[in-house]
Design goal:
Elements (H helix, E strand, L loop, with lengths): L2 H34 E2 L21 E3 L5 E5 L6 E3 L12 E3 L4 E4 L13 E3 L4 E4 L13 E3 L4 E5 L12 E3 L4 E5 L19 E3 L17
Parallel strand pairs: 3-5, 4-6, 5-7, 6-8, 7-9, 8-10, 9-11, 10-12, 12-13
Antiparallel strand pairs: 1-4, 2-3
Length: 216
């Protein structure tokens, strides 16, 4: 067989081999989440790490290239911590984890999910600050962080999220002042209510990074 005739075959084999490698990486990331949570309803029972890719797992949606694009685990009675490995799901568009009992911090690694359109962490028991790394999610349209136990200031970097349409950070323990610059200019105080130590909105031209209230 002529050497030039081998090129299409080599290219085909290369693409075939590359896809499972990516799929296995995403499967490993999702299985790290399964190991980290308590699942009393066995909603993650189908998450079998021995499979070639996670696209056959329940609550996981993939595109035509077998890349994970959606994770639907809302109201699944899960508890435990979110794992940094979730940041490896490079093609993820929807991360729906609302109405569970997740605890601990929001992983900074979620800022690596460049394709993310929706991040829904509503009604968990998450603590710590809102990661400034979320400002890297340039495609993000929906961000729900309400009804948790988040603390600290609202990162000013988040005002760079030009595509953000829905924001809810109410019912937490955030502090400092509410940003009004950039994309935040269209959100009312309803997006931030029931944060006893949060003041605002900021006076335009007089950004008060240090209010009289404690913000540790």
């Amino acid at each position: 067989m002529a050497t030039w005739a081998l090129f299409p075959l080599i290219a085909l084999l290369s693409s075939t081999l590359a896809a499972p490698a990516a799929a296995n990486s995403e499967g490993d990331a999702l299985y790290a989440l399964r190991r980290a949570v308590v699942d009393p309803g066995n909603v993650l029972q189908s998450w079998d790490p021995t499979l070639v890719d996670p696209c056959t797992w329940f609550h996981v949606t993939c595109d035509h290239d077998n890349r994970v694009t959606r994770l639907d685990l809302g109201n699944a009675k899960l508890s435990g911590k979110l794992v940094p490995e979730l940041g490896k799901l490079e093609h993820l568009q929807y991360l729906e984890l609302y109405m569970n009992d997740f605890v601990g911090h929001i992983p900074e690694e979620l800022g690596g999910l460049k394709s993310l359109v929706s991040l829904d962490l509503f009604h968990n028991n998450l603590t710590g600050p809102i990661p400034s790394s979320l400002s890297k999610l340039s495609n993000l349209k929906f961000l729900r962080l309400n009804n948790n136990k988040l603390t600290g200031r609202i990162p000013r970097e988040l005002t760079k999220l030009g595509n953000l349409k829905i924001l809810n950070a109410s019912n937490n323990n955030l502090c400092g002042t509410i940003p009004v610059a950039g994309s935040f200019s269209k959100f009312t105080e309803q997006s931030f209510v029931n944060n006893p130590r949060l003041e605002g909105p900021e006076l335009i031209g007089f950004v008060r990074y240090d209010s009289g209230r404690d913000c540790n």
